[in-house]
């Protein structure tokens, strides 16, 4: 994935996968709200609920 900002372009590796989370409901809700991973502030780590 490439992100352009001004004159600079940064490249990031991105993956899509199915993930099963088990644990405390409050922690799972927190992970859903903020995302999972180190670059979640950039929009990576987004979680989509599959039913």
List the helices and strands and how they pair.
Elements: E1 2-5, E2 8-11, H1 25-34
Antiparallel strand pairs: 1-2
Percent in helix: 10-25%
User: What class do helices, strands and sheet pairing give?
Assistant: alpha+beta
Roughly what fraction of the amino acids lie in strands? Answer: 15-25%
The number of distinct β-strands equals: 2
Q: Report the order of strands and helices.
A: EEH
Oligomeric state of the chains in view = single chain
Given as residue ranges, the uncertain stretches (5+ residues, pLDDT < 50) are none
Overview of the molecule:
This protein has a two-stranded antiparallel sheet. It is α+β, with helices and mostly antiparallel strands and 51 residues long. It has one helix and two strands, in the order E-E-H. 20% of the residues lie in helices and 16% in strands. The chain has one helix spanning 25-34; strands at residues 2-5, 8-11. Strand 1 and strand 2 form a beta hairpin. The relative contact order is 0.18.
Short description:
By secondary structure, the protein is α+β, with helices and mostly antiparallel strands. The chain has one helix at residues 25-34; strands spanning 2-5, 8-11. The protein is built from 1 helix and 2 strands.
Keywords, separated by commas or semicolons:
51 residues; single chain; 2 strands; 1 helix; two-stranded antiparallel sheet
């Amino acid at each position: 994935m490439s992100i352009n900002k001004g004159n600079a372009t940064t490249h990031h590796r991105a993956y899509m996968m199915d993930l099963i989370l088990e644990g405390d409901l409050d922690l799972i809700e927190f992970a859903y709200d903020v995302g999972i991973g180190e670059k979640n502030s950039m929009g990576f780590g987004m979680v989509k609920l599959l039913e």
